Amino acid sequence: IQTSNNQIKSQSTVKTSSSGVFSPRHTVQKGETLYDIALKYGVTTENLKKVNKLRSNKILVGQVLIIPQG
User: Fold this and answer.
1) CB 54 within 8 A of CB 45
2) Do strands 22-27 and 13-15 pair parallel, antiparallel, or not at all (unpaired)?
3) What string of DSSP letters covers 47-69?
4) Radius of gyration, CA atoms only, the chain
5) Please, what is the Cα angle at 30 between 7 and 27, to 5 degrees?
6) Are strands 64-66 and 13-15 parallel, antiparallel or unpaired?
7) What is the per-residue pLDDT across 48-70, written as a single tens digit (0 to 9) for each?
């Protein structure tokens, strides 16, 4: 990804174990909720929880979440 000042940024992706499909990652920032992140990527909170093996909606700053596709 190229920014306006011609710097190149890489987009973080991670390969899922079974499908071989690459999924983006998101690092949780201060003040974000699971709901906020789900809205940002157009997925459900339940899908985020399932893919990341979360038992609750609690997430921590700095935690890296796999974003499910579609």
Assistant:
1) no
2) antiparallel
3) HHHHHTT-SSS---TT-EEEPPP
4) 13
5) 50
6) unpaired
7) 999 999 999 999 999 999 999 86
Distance of alpha carbon 66 from alpha carbon 70, whole angstroms: 13
Amino acid at 38: A
Distances (CA, A) of 42 to 3, 7, 50: 23, 27, 15
Average pLDDT over residues 28-49: 97
Lookup: tokens for 14: 């991670």
Contact 28, 22 (CB under 8 A): no
SS (H, E, C) 17-45: CCCCCEEEEEECCCCCCHHHHHHHHCCCH
